[in-house]
Specification:
By secondary structure, the chain is an all-alpha fold. It has ten helices and no strands. Helix content is 83%, strand content 0%.
Length: 220
C-alpha cells in the first residue's frame, strides 16, 4: 500500500482515537477507511482490531489512573466480554468474505451481546458499552465512559489474539494507525476528564446516531 494512503489512514486513526476515548465509535471511522483503501473485509476487521487496541488501552490507562475504574466491580463484566469477543472473532475468521461484506452494515446496529459483536465487527461497540453502563449499572456518564474503555480493551485484545492466529492482520498498515490511535486516545481521554459530560454527551449522541445511520444505509 502506498505511503500516502497509510498516512491518511493514520490521520483517520488519530481522529478516531480522540472520539473513541470520549464516546466510543471510533471504528465507524477507521473500518470504513480501511475498506475504502482496498483492504479485504476480514483483513480490515483484523487490522482495525490491532490499531484500535492501542487506542482503547491508552484511554483505559488514563481513566484508570484517574481512579474512575474499579476492577473489583466490573471483573465479571470483563470476563463475560472476553468470552463473547473470542466467540465472535472465531466466527469472523471462518466466514466467507463476500457474506461478511454484505452483513457488515446491519451488524453495526444489531449488536447483542456487545462482546460478541465487538469480536465480529467492532465499530460502535464503545458507545454500546457506555450505554449499557448507564442503563444497567446506574453509573454517571464519566464513570460509564471509563468502565466502557476497560471492556472495550478486553474485547479488542481477545479478538486480536484470535485474529493474529488466523493471519489476517496487516501490520504495515495497522502499526502506523496504532500510533495515531494512541495519540488521539490520550488527548481524548484527558479532554473528557477535564470537560466531563459537556463533551461526552454530544459525542455519545453523535456516535450512536452514526451507527443507526449505518444500519439504515445498509438495509435501504
Amino acid at each position: 500500500m502506498d505511503l500516502d494512503i497509510i498516512l491518511l489512514l493514520s490521520l483517520a486513526a488519530l481522529v478516531a482515537g480522540f472520539i473513541d476515548a470520549i464516546a466510543g465509535g471510533g471504528g465507524l471511522i477507521t473500518l470504513p477507511a480501511l475498506l475504502i483503501a482496498g483492504v479485504a473485509p476480514t483483513d480490515a476487521i483484523a487490522t482495525n482490531k490491532l490499531q484500535g487496541t492501542f487506542g482503547v488501552a491508552t484511554a483505559s490507562a488514563s481513566y484508570y489512573k484517574s481512579g474512575l475504574i474499579d476492577l473489583r466491580v466490573i471483573a465479571t463484566a470483563v470476563a463475560a466480554t472476553a468470552v463473547g469477543a473470542a466467540a465472535g472473532s472465531m466466527l469472523v475468521s471462518n466466514v466467507d468474505p463476500g457474506l461478511l461484506h454484505r452483513f457488515m452494515p446491519f451488524a453495526l446496529g444489531a449488536a447483542a451481546p456487545i462482546g460478541f459483536y465487538d469480536g465480529v465487527f467492532g465499530p460502535g461497540a464503545g458507545s454500546l458499552y457506555t450505554l449499557a453502563f448507564l442503563a444497567a449499572a446506574g453509573c454517571n456518564l464519566i464513570t460509564a465512559t471509563a468502565n466502557a474503555k476497560l471492556l472495550n480493551v478486553t474485547s479488542n485484545l481477545t479478538s486480536l489474539g484470535v485474529l493474529l492466529v488466523s493471519g489476517h492482520v496487516n501490520f504495515a498498515v495497522g502499526l502506523p494507525m496504532a500510533l495515531g490511535q494512541s495519540l488521539g486516545a490520550w488527548v481524548g481521554a484527558h479532554t473528557a476528564l477535564k470537560h466531563g459530560t459537556r463533551i461526552i454527551r454530544p459525542l455519545l449522541v453523535a456516535t450512536t446516531s452514526a451507527a443507526a445511520v449505518k444500519l439504515l444505509m445498509g438495509t435501504a
